[in-house]
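Q: My labmate handed me this sequence with no annotations at all. I'd like to see what the chain might look like in three dimensions before we decide whether it's worth expressing. Could you predict it?
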Amino acid sequence: MTSTHAFWLAGRQANGEDTFDVTSPWDGRLVGKVSVPTDAQVEEAVAAAYAVRDEFAATPAHVRAAALDHVSRRLVERTEEIAQLISAENGKPIKWARGEVGRAVSVFRFAAEEARRFNGGEAQRLDTDAGGQGRLALTRRFPKGVVLGIAPFNFPLNLCAHKIAPAIAAGVPIILKPAPATPLSGLIIGDLLAESELPAGAWSILPVANDHMPALVQDERLPVISFTGSEKVGYAIMDSVPRKHCTLELGGNGAAVVLGDYSSDADLDWAATRIATFSNYQGGQSCISVQRVIVDASVYDRLLPRIVAAVEAQVTGDPSDAKTDVGPLVSEAAAQRVESWVQEAVDAGATLLTGGKRDGASYAPTVLTDVPADVTISCEEVFGPVLTVTKVDGEPAAFAAANDSKYGLQAGVFTHDVQVAFRAHRALEVGGVVIGDVPSYRADQMPYGGAKQSGVGREGVKFAMDDYTYERVLVLTGLAL
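A: Here is what I predict for the chain of 481 residues:
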């Protein structure tokens, strides 16, 4: 069953002159038709957001919180429908799609909670010096301006939620551009927000083509850009608007470090299962999926066959089947790229232990060892179901290997030693260190972002709200403190 989806313009549904097809990467079937906004309609959305910015900033917290609570509840009510939509347009296995809806439910709930407590103000007495006698400073946060949110295809609902929900919670108008491959899930958020009482212009969802983005990026009425996507595109945006505030959540090539104290059979079985699962979930199309496995020599020979067996146990196939663990990549072109990177590594001397086969947009879960340090798959983000395994001697060598990357999003460290955990936290050049698990863990309320070329700024509801606003100080004089 297919449907036609209008875009959301200043809080109301609208239709453009043209449409484009959204098709399933699994079987190519038509999932939906999406209306494309005209240039005039894009201008209308930007003008409306700019015009409403003061009104929206002054909207009572209970109004914004009620709208966010409403979206959270409606996502619960429509969970199965939306999960099926995510799976159809993205190719994500239905069990992961259901989990994504659950995460979006939480994001809007967290945002409602933050809206109620955000910006209460912080008082600071100034009479600590004689010149400040009788004075009190009150610091509150105010919007930097309208946000342009640009979301990727890999979490088409939840990463749209991470742009929209913090903006509404902070009283900041937002223009959201969902990914061209997966616009339907983002437009569903528009359906739900339209049932609320937010002022017109507070939000618009515009599925414009990528080649129309430079004009929006350059528009001076949109001083804040929140981008999630590739390193190349993210830094190109930042370089093109050096005076704008940009938050960039970019790529990674997540490392899972398994140290020598993680040595019991139960430990190694757990590590292998988690590594195999989170190298391949979402088809490996996650910024924090496991790409590099760094294993202490003392446990390497026991862990490696477990990893291979756990990877081979991953169920691949139709994403609508609840038993499927690994579906297709977002497109055949994406799978062909992964195929070429694996072949390059094998040609350079890497050992292929399992996988390495492509069928259309699907790529078999793959394990490589002996991978040269200078091949593409060692240096870049594969964004596919491929992991490499490397043997090291000891903790310092393991942490050095994890840091030997231009990326620094998150890392996982399998250890039982709390002292090692704190050393890892200090040594690893990443935005987040996960102890006893893979780097793929993300709680939607925690600060999320990277170091080095993995981006700038932090997402996570409260932290995005801080990013969308700035501190303004009010000094009160003549007070009897």
